[in-house]
Every structure is written in structure tokens, then in C-alpha cells.
Design goal:
The complex is a heterodimer of chains A (324) and B (611). Chain A has two domains: 266 residues, 3-Layer(aba) Sandwich (Rossmann fold); 34 residues, no CATH class. Chain A has ten helices and ten strands. Chain A starts with 40 loop residues before the first helix and ends with a helix. Chain A is 31% helix and 15% strand. Chain B is an alpha/beta fold and 611 residues long. Chain B has a six-stranded mixed β-sheet with strand order 3-4-2-5-6-7, sandwiched between helices. In chain B, strands 12-13-15-14-20 form a five-stranded mixed β-sheet. The chains are: A alpha/beta (324), B alpha/beta (611). At the A-B interface, strand 1, strand 2, helix 3, helix 5 and helix 9 of A face helix 1, strand 9, helix 8, helix 10 and helix 12 of B. Bound molecules: thiamine diphosphate, iron/sulfur cluster and magnesium ion. Iron/sulfur cluster binds next to loops of chain A.
Chain lengths: 324, 611
């Protein structure tokens, strides 16, 4: 039997939580004299993805690998967290610390990591059902709390893993196994949902434009706060052609957010979000309000200052003295 | 006040009375009024005073389900010897209103004293014979003492003064407690409070025959701290090294989260109020995965919401402490009453074969140590641990020896030292106990662990292999079997063999032991054991059961479809022992010693008949 804590760590163990970081201040654990090269795709790829050939999720995975390579992230600096769904299988395909949690609850799980481990970058992946149906409440609250993490929703407008039921983003009239006469419930607009919830970074991209996906991931990762990306990701099995209208190679149009759009203007962001499909792609909104991580760190700093340099047991002793 | 109870019967009003002074070993005092009267505060003062006087103390209170205005009581039992429960009946009842008088006179011993506010209570002639009635114009005397405006305020301190006089309590210590309580407020607040107290203390209790004095305490002198079970749990978690928690408010659990929210930042930690219990358990699970055992908690309905995640924690082998401060159920049930009806959900409330650990503290002091034990079991065995407290331990105040904090406090800072290789679900470990390397750990082999709820191979990658599912299921079970064999066998209270063994768990330990004390004094062969570890069970229970002719499990839950309470059913399934029978109740109240004795009686007389 091995207790979790054995000896004092050689690496600087994080004190809880440190000031939030804006990219680039992660700890790297090198062996003495070791020169580390950026991880290659070979090193970062794990299991061969179990997705159907042609599934849009492949492209998101490939660009995640690119991001890790380009930004020289090492495995001791990040985690990949997911809920349940085809898209949520993501962590198995990445050779790094990862968690395959339960359906819809990846965000609160990731929040627990983000708030206690400022030395890690937390990436969360999942589907539209995971994010907006079973996890809808968590999406709202993680966004309003402005938890420092990057959340990529691979939106295919359908339930893939459970084989074609209606999803909360399925367009009206979409025929599924549970809406054989066509979907009748107003679909959720992820952009509006994120804006209304108070997300501080709101972006939209599509699997068919790799450079754009990478750019959005980088921007989200560099954002100090809740970085949300809706990435259209085609389910070739159950909703083929859903995103052709956004794919120039399929005769559609990929329209970027207008150059003169003010990302600080929430109302303008709603207007962009209100466009009919395929809509705009790019960063809709960005806001620099403090993260929950920073707010909690401030409370900790204030409270620690109040107890002065006391050791933990001395603080507890003081509490007990008051209970005599 | 057993020793003096018989002398309390009211004497005929003939000759002038001379107050006498009686030594008592203990006393039960009940204050009954409305929630805004500060009843809980008087109880708090008395409990703290007892704590500072090396006396034992146990309290019992009811919180009205409504936010304000409801009837409220606080009962305190102070003794020079061991105090095991809050007491079946009280020696003194302080009644502020007619409704307090009428609904609580039944809890007063025959011959006991009822001290009532003469301006709000009309004593009933038919009760005059049985109880010693002492009317005091509490309301107007309080107003007189502290000035006209503070109508309802201060009555509690006036009553405290009366009681202090009656029991010759240490006024210097009480004044200090009152001053400390209002420290930081305007000095006039302290003065007003002390004025009310002194007015009560100075009042001449003309009709009262005796004053009472507690006998010297036999306790070894030493610092005592006074707190309730929720506080003890919260501080235990802090001592254990927990630095993150997440929860959603619900009575009676909320107090634990409120304390942790206030205290954790001082220790560099955080407590998050979540959108719901599912988020809370998930967030705590995430923090635990991140390297340091975290806590979540709830009561009743909230525990149901956490069950999917708890099964995930079992499957993924992530440590977590889940506190369940039980209340009456099912559903919203009885939010402010006590029940032990969550044992089943704690042990089995999850989909799939999901063995987890369940421990139940026996009293307030045990809450502190159980919290630490739960954390250590969780991290050693990488498993969710449920702590089953209940409303009665949560809200009652006890004085306990101050824990040796410097020795006890743990530092659970995660070890992030690089490792050569790591299999999170290594099947070669004989006891099935995994090692957890938190994210941030560099693994030199380049193979990284995935923690998952899907059945998995040793690295955490999904598999549907029948062999692996069987092997991993066995591994998850085996580590709890390992834990079980390391648990201490509960000690028998009373002789190790006899006619009847009473089995208790959780907060029932006090009244059960008190019942046993009385049996032993009467020469009846009744002993008891208390089970703290409910899943897995400790070893040796079968041997203990074998030394008695009848084993009666005393619980606060329903006897169920087949006539067995929740623990009784579990023990029956485990031991198939016909001697095991069940004594249950579902009135939302703690067991009284008298009730236990009445329910055990038929079994005892059965033995007497057969002898
Ligand atoms: C509590 C719970 N309910 C239902 C399921 C079954 N389930 C798994 S994935 C899924 C929907 C997945 O859809 P989405 O999130 O859009 O992911 P996709 O497969 O499309 O990528 C459902 C209903 C589950 N695993 N857990
Ligand atoms: S079912 Fe659809 S979403 Fe799932 S892997 Fe296949 S194509 Fe992708
Ligand atoms: Mg989907």
C-alpha cells in the first residue's frame, strides 16, 4: 500500500491557488542538463481514435497536437478533461494526464483542478449534448464564475455516441430517432448562451478550417479566464453535410467576424450570434474581468495576511482557543 | 439530578421556608421559547461554562423549520461524571411562553422545577401538585434592568442569571463568556448584556426551596473545547489537511460548508458554493484528482444527486470525502429532525458494483477524529469515503478534551516528483491499492494515466475485455477487504457475554450506553457495541455476537418491509445470524434511555421466563 503523499516533492509544489497566469508561466520539470524539444505528434498521440473515418473530431485532435507542439507544452503542464460522448473520448487519444469523467459534468471537475492547480493549464473537450443539455447548468455557472480554463465544444448538432437522437443544437426539422417527424424544440444558440452566461472569451470555428481552429485555440488558451470555443465538427455518421454551408470546399462560405467588430462590445457580439447559419467565425467577445481563480487568490492572500506568519496548526489552535 | 429528584416535590405551604443547598452530580435544564429569544445562546453559555469547569456537557436543541418566530428549545445536561446523552427528562424547565410551558411540561421530571415568565404564562392548577412552579416576571424585570426599548432582547441573559443563581454557577466565568461573546461590538452591548444577567442573578427566588451545587468533577483537568458536531467535522477536515471543498447549501449540512468557506482561505485553501450537488461533488473530485483529498457534503436529497459521481470515483479510484449530515427522509422529509435512514444509500447508493467506505462518528468529539480518519482512508485506498453524521450530532454541543493539534495536523501537499513509469490501475499490486500520481507529474516512460469511468486496462484505457472487467472489479473490492482486515474490532461495553447485546451506530451511542449502565446496575446481562465502520465492517463481529443470546440493533429508521432496520438488514445479510433482531423508530427524535429500555424489555423478560 502506497500512501499518496510520501516525501517532500522535488518540484515546487503549488501553493493554493497562485496568482492566475496569462500563458507562458508553467513549470517545466527537466532532468539535469536536459534540453527538451517540443513534443512531436508521435509522442503526444496515444490510442488510435475510435471515431468514424471522416469525423470532424479528428481535425480538432490534430490541431490540439499542433497547439501543444507550437506552444511547447509538456505533459507536466496541462490536463485534458472530458465528459461523455464521441467527442468526449478525446483524452484517450492524447498521451498526457487526462480524465474521462461523467456525462455533462466535465466543467465542474475541471474547475476543481483549475482552482487548486495554478501550475496546470486545463483543457476541456465535449459535445453539444454534454455541454448544453445535461451539462447546461454547469456551462452557465463555469462561465459566470469565469474559471480559468479552455473549453472546446465539438458541436455536431446531434447525439453521436448514442446514435442519432436530437441534440439541443439540432436545427428545427432535423429528423432523428427521437424526432422522427423533425425536431420541434428551439435549438440553443451556443454563442448567445455563452454571452448571456457571462463567458469572458467567446469564439466560433469549424473543423474544416484547420488554421482557424488552431488560431482560436491559441487565443482561448492565452485568455485569462473562461475561454469558450464552439467548433462545428461534422458527424459523418448521423448528420452528414450538416456544415457544408460553412465549407468553401463543399460550395459553402466561411465568413470571418468583420475586421471592425469590437470584441469588447457585448451587444455587437449578440448581433453576430444572431446571424442565420452558417453565421460568422472568429472571436465574438472578450472581456478582462477577474477570474474566479484571481478572486479566490485575493481572498486567500488577505486572509493569510490576517493570520500573519502562523503555521496551519497554530491557526487551528487559535480557533480552538476561542471555543474554550 | 437523579440524586435529589425525590426531595423536589413541593412541600405544603405551612411554615416559612429556609432555602437549603443540595449537592448534585448532574442536571438537565431545558429552555423553551421562540427562536428569536436567544435560547441557543443561553445553551451555548452553559455548555462553554461546563467546558471551562472540567464538567461534561451535552446539549440537545431543536431548530424550527421556519426561519423566524418558531418555537425553539435548548436542553443542556451538565454533569460532574460522564454525560452520555442530553437526558430523557429535565430537572428544570425554563418556559418563556404559555406554549412553551404547555408543550414541554411533559419533559419535566415529576417534582422538577418549572421556572416561568409570570407575564406570559398562566400556570395550570392541575400541574401545581406535580411540579414545583416558580413564576418570575422575566419580561418586565429585564426591561427594568436594561432600559425600556429592548423588549425581547436580554430575556435570555436574565434567565441565565436565574439559573446561575439556582445552580451556584461561577459568575466570574459566565461574565467573561458574555463579554467575549459580544467582543468587538459596542461596549454598551456588553454592559446591557451583563446588566440583564446580573438582574436575573440578583433576583430572589423566594419560592424556591433549594439551590444546587455541582459536585467536584472527577475528570482529569485539562483544556476542553466546546463545539457542535458540524464544527468538529469542519475543524477535523482542516486538521486532516483538506484544502478544497465544494458544496450546495442544505440543512443541516450547510454549517459545515459555511465554516470551511470562512476558515479555508486562512490555510491557503478554497471552498466553492456550487450551482448544485452534482457540480459540487464533481468539483471536489477534480480537486482530489489534482492531488489533495477534497471534501463535499450534503444532507438527504443532495446525497442522491451525488451518487453518479461517487460511482465514478469508485471506478476511477479517486479519493474523496463525502459528508452526509443525515436528516429525516425520504425527499425533503424532515429537514430539521434526526434519522439514520441514509445508511443504505451510503453503502449501496450507486449504479454498478461500487464498493465505497462508510464511517459514522458517534459523538461530537468523534466527528473531529472521524473526519481525519476518512481523509486518510480515502487517500490510502484511493476511494470515496462517506462520513455519516446526523442532525442530532451536528447541532448538539459537547465539551471535549482539546485535541493535540500540533501532532495531529497533516500536510497533504501533493508529491509531484517525476516517476519512471506509472500504471494507475496496476493489477500486480496484491492488495489492489493503487498509487495516484497527480497531473503535473512528469512520467519518464512517456506513458500517461487516464482516469476513467469506463472499464479500463492498467493505464486507464478503455477495454471491454471480460477478463479485465472481472480482474478490475475484484481489485476494487479487494482493497476494501484489505481495509476491513485492518480495522479495529469494536469493544464490548459491559461484560463480553450475556443475554442481550445492543448494537448501535452513529449518534445513538450515548442513550444505548446509558441504558446498559442501568441494566448492569440492576444485574441484567445486557451489553452493547458501537459500530463506527459500516462499510466495510470491522472483523470479529460474529465472535462478539456469538457470546450473547440475542443481538438487538437499535436504529433511528424504519423496520423495512422485512422487519429489519438498515444496519440490522446489513448485518443479517452479512452474518445470517438468527439472534440479530431490530429495534427501530421513526419519530425524528433521538432515542431516550427509557424508550430503549421499554423496547428491550420483552426480550429480557423472555430470558427471565426461560431461566
Ligand atoms: C447520465 C448519462 N445519461 C446518458 C448517457 C448516455 N449518453 C452518452 S453520450 C450521450 C450524448 C452525446 O452527445 P454529445 O454530447 O453531443 O456528444 P457526441 O457523441 O455527439 O460527440 C448520451 C445521451 C450517459 N452516458 N450518462
Ligand atoms: S458517430 Fe458521428 S460524432 Fe461519433 S465518431 Fe462517428 S462521425 Fe464522429
Ligand atoms: Mg453531439
Amino acid at each position: 500500500m502506497t500512501p499518496i503523499v510520501t516525501e517532500a516533492p522535488t518540484t515546487q509544489a503549488p501553493t493554493l491557488p497562485a496568482p492566475s497566469r496569462t500563458g507562458g508561466t508553467f513549470t517545466v520539470v527537466n532532468r539535469p542538463g536536459e534540453e527538451r524539444k517540443a513534443l512531436t505528434k508521435k509522442e503526444i498521440a496515444a490510442d488510435h481514435p475510435t471515431w468514424c473515418p471522416g469525423c470532424g473530431d479528428f481535425s480538432v485532435l490534430a490541431l490540439y497536437f499542433k497547439l501543444i507542439e507550437k506552444r511547447r507544452l509538456f505533459q507536466e503542464q496541462f490536463v485534458s478533461i472530458a465528459g461523455i460522448g464521441c467527442s468526449s473520448r478525446f483524452p484517450y487519444f492524447v498521451q498526457a494526464h487526462g480524465v474521462h469523467y461523467i456525462h455533462g459534468r466535465a466543467l465542474p471537475f475541471a474547475t476543481g483542478i483549475s482552482l487548486t492547480r495554478p501550475d496546470l493549464h486545463v483543457f476541456v473537450f465535449g459535445g453539444d449534448g454534454d455541454a448544453f443539455s445535461i451539462g447546461g447548468n454547469h456551462f452557465t455557472h463555469a462561465a459566470r464564475k469565469n474559471v480559468k480554463l479552455t473549453y472546446v465544444v465539438m458541436d455536431n448538432f446531434v447525439y453521436g455516441l448514442t446514435k442519432k437522437q436530437t441534440s439541443p443544437t439540432s436545427p428545427l426539422g432535423f429528423k432523428s430517432k427521437t424526432d422522427m417527424w423533425g425536431a420541434m424544440d428551439q435549438p440553443i444558440n451556443p454563442m448567445k448562451q455563452a454571452l448571456a452566461a457571462g463567458a469572458t472569451f467567446v469564439a466560433r470555428t469549424t473543423h474544416s478550417n484547420p488554421n482557424h481552429v488552431l488560431a482560436m485555440m491559441e487565443a482561448a488558451m492565452d485568455h485569462d479566464g473562461f475561454g469558450f470555443i464552439e467548433c462545428l465538427s461534422e458527424c459523418v455518421e448521423f448528420y452528414e453535410g450538416a456544415f457544408d454551408a460553412s465549407n468553401p470546399r463543399k460550395g459553402g462560405q466561411f465568413v470571418e467576424v468583420p475586421k471592425d467588430h469590437n470584441v469588447a462590445d457585448e451587444i455587437a457580439a449578440y448581433r453576430l450570434a444572431d446571424q442565420p447559419f452558417p453565421g460568422y467565425f472568429g472571436v465574438f467577445y472578450k472581456n478582462g474581468r477577474p477570474t474566479k481563480n484571481a478572486n479566490e487568490a485575493k481572498i486567500i492572500a488577505d486572509q493569510r495576511a490576517k493570520v500573519g506568519g502562523l503555521k496551519d496548526w497554530e491557526i487551528l489552535k487559535k480557533s480552538f482557543d476561542r471555543m474554550k | 439530578m437523579s440524586e435529589v429528584a425525590t426531595t423536589w416535590a413541593k412541600q405544603p405551604d405551612t411554615k416559612p421556608k429556609q432555602p437549603s443547598r443540595l449537592k448534585v452530580s448532574e442536571a438537565v435544564i431545558r429552555f423553551a421559547g421562540n427562536s428569536q429569544d436567544g435560547i441557543q445562546a443561553i445553551g451555548g453559555f452553559l455548555a462553554r461554562l461546563a467546558g471551562r469547569s472540567e464538567q461534561e456537557v451535552m446539549t440537545f436543541m431543536t431548530i424550527p423549520a421556519t426561519i423566524s418566530g418558531g418555537a425553539s428549545i435548548f436542553q443542556v445536561r451538565i454533569g460532574s461524571g460522564e454525560v452520555l446523552s442530553a437526558g430523557d427528562e429535565c430537572d428544570v424547565l425554563v418556559a418563556f411562553y404559555q406554549h412553551s410551558y404547555e408543550s414541554h411540561i411533559n419533559s419535566l421530571k415529576k417534582g422538577g422545577i418549572v421556572l416561568y415568565d409570570a407575564e406570559h404564562v398562566d400556570p395550570k392548577p392541575e400541574w401545581q401538585q406535580d411540579y414545583n412552579h416558580v413564576g418570575v416576571p422575566i419580561s418586565s424585570l429585564t426591561i427594568e434592568a436594561i432600559g425600556g426599548t429592548a423588549k425581547d432582547k436580554g430575556k435570555n441573559l436574565f434567565a441565565l442569571g436565574l439559573v446561575a443563581k439556582m445552580f451556584e454557577l461561577n459568575t466570574t466565568k459566565l461574565e467573561k463568556l458574555i463579554t467575549e461573546r459580544f467582543a468587538g461590538k459596542d461596549t454598551s452591548v456588553v454592559t446591557t448584556a451583563l446588566n440583564a444577567f446580573h438582574a436575573g442573578y440578583g433576583y430572589t427566588l423566594g419560592e424556591l426551596m433549594e439551590t444546587f451545587q455541582f459536585m467536584e468533577s472527577h475528570r482529569a483537568a485539562g483544556d476542553q473545547v466546546v463545539m457542535n458536531g458540524n464544527e468538529a467535522l469542519a475543524y477535523g477536515l482542516l486538521a486532516a489537511g483538506v484544502r478544497f471543498g465544494a458544496a450546495y447549501p442544505i440543512t443541516p449540512w450547510s454549517e459545515v460548508m459555511e465554516i470551511l468557506r470562512r476558515e479555508l482561505p486562512k490555510y491557503g485553501g478554497t471552498f466553492v458554493q456550487c450551482e448544485d450537488e452534482i457540480a459540487a461533488v464533481s468539483m471536489a473530485m477534480g480537486a482530489s484528482y489534482a492531488g489533495r483529498v477534497a471534501v463535499t457534503g450534503s444532507s438527504g436529497p443532495g446525497i442522491s444527486l451525488k451518487s453518479e459521481s461517487i460511482s465514478w470515483g469508485v471506478m476511477a479510484e479517486v479519493p474523496l470525502v463525502i459528508v452526509d449530515v443525515q436528516r429525516g427522509g425520504p425527499s425533503t422529509g424532515l429537514p430539521t429532525s434526526v434519522e439514520q435512514s441514509d445508511l443504505n444509500i451510503a453503502c449501496y447508493g450507486g449504479h454498478g458494483d461500487a464498493p465505497r467506505v462508510v464511517v459514522a462518528p458517534a459523538n461530537v468529539e468523534d466527528c473531529f477524529y472521524t473526519a481525519i480518519e476518512a481523509v486518510n482512508i480515502a487517500r490510502t485506498f484511493s476511494v470515496p469515503v462517506i462520513v455519516l453524521s446526523d442532525q442530532s450530532i451536528a447541532t448538539r454541543i459537547e465539551a471535549l478534551p482539546e485535541p493535540k493539534i500540533q501532532k495531529i495536523c497533516q500536510d497533504l501537499t501533493p508529491n509531484l516528483r517525476p516517476v519512471a513509469d506509472h500504471k494507475p490501475y496496476d493489477l500486480s499490486s496484491p492488495d489492489g491499492i493503487p498509487e495516484h500520481h497527480a497531473p503535473g507529474t512528469r512520467i519518464l516512460s512517456g506513458k500517461y494515466p487516464i482516469l476513467t469511468g469506463l472499464e479500463h486496462d492498467e493505464y486507464g484505457h478503455p477495454t471491454a475485455s471480460p477478463k479485465l472487467h472481472a480482474a478490475m472489479t475484484a481489485k476494487r473490492r479487494r482493497k476494501l477487504q484489505e481495509l476491513s482486515s485492518s480495522l479495529p474490532t469494536p469493544r464490548v461495553y459491559g461484560p463480553e457475554e450475556g443475554d442481550i447485546l445492543l448494537v448501535g451506530w452513529g449518534s445513538t451511542v450515548g442513550p444505548i450506553r446509558e441504558a446498559v449502565d442501568r441494566y448492569l446496575a440492576a444485574g441484567d446481562k445486557v451489553s452493547s457495541i458501537h459500530i463506527r465502520h459500516l462499510n466495510p465492517l470491522p472483523p470479529g463481529l460474529d465472535i462478539i455476537f456469538g457470546n450473547f443470546r440475542q443481538v438487538l440493533v437499535i436504529e433511528m429508521n424504519d423496520e423495512g418491509l422485512y422487519g429489519y432496520g438498515q444496519l440490522a438488514a446489513l448485518l443479517r445479510a452479512r452474518f445470517m445470524d438468527k439472534r440479530l433482531r431490530s429495534i427501530t423508530k421513526t419519530d425524528g427524535l433521538t432515542w431516550k434511555v427509557k424508550e430503549i429500555r421499554e423496547r428491550v424489555k420483552p426480550f429480557l423478560s423472555d430470558f427471565a421466563r426461560r431461566r
